Amino acid sequence: MAACSTATKLATTAAPPTVEPTATPVPTPTATTIPYGDFANAEISPADPERLAQLTKLFSLVPESFNSAVFLDLESLKSNESLADLINPEILGMDVALPSIASGLVSRIAVAADTQNRSLVTPFQSEFSIGDMLRLAGGFGINLGGDGPTSYEGHDVWGINAFGTVLAMAAADDTTGVAAAGQAIAPDDARALAEASLDAFDGRSATLLDTPGLSGLLADVPSGFAAAVLSGCSTVPLFDDAQELSVCTGVAVTADILPGDLVVFHSLVGFPDQAVAGLAIEQTAEALEKENRSKDFEDLGVRQEGQNLRIRLIVSLPKFAEVFQLFAPSN
Predict the structure, then answer these.
(1) Which region ranges are annotated with the description Disordered (predicted)?
(2) CA atoms of 288 and 313, how far apart (whole Å)
């Protein structure tokens, strides 16, 4: 296994105690749960099955034509007031994806943008049905539901004009829906985009996660409150100056909270084969070190695992947004 790793210890880290040598030393397994442990040999847990299922369900509403998507678990953030103040859809630019009356009612949200067609799909999960959301908006004198839903392949689809913004909202099931919008988009085009998301969800067409190897990358990183998946590296800001990395086949990244107001980022970057991954590790390490000089990571490491590179970064909580945007799609 090729690996390189650097680490910066917190000022409060105590010096290790002196250990007296013994005549017959017995090897002791090294704990792998300490954030500042040796990343080169650390055991990294895969995604939690239940949380992975929730995330996969949302991303299944993203058609294959969208080459990236980002995710935020709003429910987990709402349970921590200090986190909610620092990490929210507005910080990540995700607040444009849903009408404000609806965004406050969702528990999980994903956003995928197609810059070529200037369109946006926003899968979401909520305890409220779309119909209930629209009725709630009506209670405030805001008529978002128009003439009510029409049916598409057994799903309800609403055409909405929210303060001049045209979009369509569709119910995938009782708890999951999708909003579709675009710059200067016509109502019929917004509806067609929502229907394309439903086609992906129902299996009538391919999804972003059908990109070869991408779902495997996502399943092999620990679950977190934020995530991003990309079907290639051309839009990964971290790799802007490393053209050698443009041959990557996919990226998955998650972020989660550690004790001490820290955030840990886990990422897997896939390559066509083991040899290409081996050639890419040096460029990846250089890109990380370059960002470290300006962002002062608490800990960073990169190692090769077969045809993948695994990256781990640990940063202070206030730096979450700028570091997440190193991995999130530049669009």
Answers:
(1) 1-30
(2) 9
Do residues 200 and 220 both lie within one domain? no
**Contact residues for 164 (Cβ-Cβ < 8 A; gap 6+):** none
**C-alpha closest to that of 288 among 326, 317, 259, 235:** 326
What six digits make up the tokens of 149? 């839903």
Whole-structure pTM value: 0.83
Cα–Cα distances in angstroms (integers) from residue 245 to residues 120, 255, 324, in the given order: 27, 22, 19
Residues 180 and 226 in one domain: no
Domain that holds residue 313: 211-327
Q: Is residue 22 part of a domain?
A: no
Residues 6+ apart with CB under 8 A from 137: 99, 101, 102, 143, 144, 145
Alpha carbon 155 to chain centroid distance? Answer: 27
267 and 221 Cβ atoms separated by less than 8 Å = yes
Confidence of residue 329 (pLDDT cuts 50, 70, 90): confident
- CA 127, distance to chain mean position in Å, is 21
Closest residue by Cα to residue 239 from 251, 221, 224, 222 = 251
pLDDT tens figures, 198-208: 999 999 999 99
> What's the mean pLDDT in 211-230?
96
Question: Pairing state of beta strands 68-73 and 155-162?
Answer: unpaired
CA distances from 122 to 96, 106, 232 (A): 10, 11, 20
- Give me the CATH number covering residue 262: 3.30.1360
Neighbours of 133 (CB within 10 A): 25
Count of domains observed in the chain: 2
Q: How far apart are CA 326 and CA 27, in angstroms?
A: 40
Do residue 188 and residue 266 come from a single domain? no
Which of 206, 241, 274 is the last residue before a domain boundary?
A: 206
Q: Is 144 exposed, middle or buried (0-12, 13-18, 19+ CB in 10 A)?
A: buried
